[in-house]
Amino acid sequence: MITGGLFVFVLGDLVTLRAMEPSDADALWRWNHDPEVMRWMDDGYAQSLAQVRQFLQERERNEYTDVLFGIETTADARLIGLIRLHGAEPETGNAELDIYLGEKDSWGRGYATDAVRTACRYGFDKMRLHKVTLTVVAGNDAAQHVYKKVGFVEEGRLREVFRRDGRWHDKLTMGLLEGELT
Ligand SMILES: CC(C)(COP(=O)(O)OP(=O)(O)OC[C@H]1O[C@@H](n2cnc3c(N)ncnc32)[C@H](O)[C@@H]1OP(=O)(O)O)[C@@H](O)C(=O)NCCC(=O)NCCS
């Protein structure tokens, strides 16, 4: 981990995690409008580019309860997605993880695996978390493969909580304990 003034960059093997900038709004808006990227994601209601820009401008600074990182490829400093650790509770040392890579040409190159591993290491080492949890739509095989590769195990199934393509899908809950990261 390299600390530079107010900014902290977290280095993985392939990716660098860094704070999001208002100038990232165009990319974020574009990703949120790509049906392939959003296929297994909760998409909420439509947001204008101006609203996405405002969200990034007015967002509170990163802190224990909500850490949002842009994922950059270290080789060419290109923003490809984002990853977030949120809802951390000091009493339980438990936080939730979300990730998505919006640049589809970056898929299948190990970036998500490295980003999840790096964010979890940050959670355990810096934030002193005990556990990282997440939910994933049962049909999202690629994401589950990534999570299992870094050590997450399936802990439960939420029945029919995600609607896509005119039908309901289950979500799986997965967890990773401190010491299980591979
Ligand atoms: C899911 C996602 C994070 C994966 O990112 P990625 O950079 O392609 O992941 P990686 O390259 O690190 O690893 C992908 C792994 O999944 C495997 N994989 C790809 N498609 C798969 C599929 N349909 N079924 C099973 N495994 C699959 C790859 O072979 C690779 O495994 P390997 O390294 O053992 O060969 C990315 O595609 C994404 O952001 N998708 C859109 C948003 C999303 O679904 N986010 C997750 C929400 S829970």
Keywords:
182 residues, alpha+beta, Aminopeptidase, nine-stranded mixed sheet, 5 helices, binds coenzyme A
Care to describe what's here?
The chain has 182 residues and is an alpha+beta fold. The chain has a single domain (2-177), classed as Aminopeptidase (3-Layer(aba) Sandwich), CATH 3.40.630. The chain has 5 helices and 9 strands, in the order βββαααβββαβαββ. A hairpin with a 4-residue loop joins β5 (78-89) and β6 (94-101). It is globular and about 40 Å long. The model has no long low-confidence stretch (mean pLDDT 95). Coenzyme A is lined by residues 37, 40-41, 81, 99-101, 107-113, 136, 140-143, 145-146, 149. The site of coenzyme A has 22 residues, from β6, α4 and α5.
CATH class: Alpha Beta
End-to-end separation: 18 Å
Helix content: 25-40%
Quickly give the structural class.
alpha+beta
Q: What Rg, in angstroms, do the CA atoms define?
A: 16 Å
Largest sheet: 9 strands, mixed
- Give me the CATH superfamily: Gcn5-related N-acetyltransferase (GNAT)
Segments where pLDDT lies below 50 for 5+ residues?
Answer: none
- What is bound: which ligands? coenzyme A
> What is the chains' assembly state?
single chain
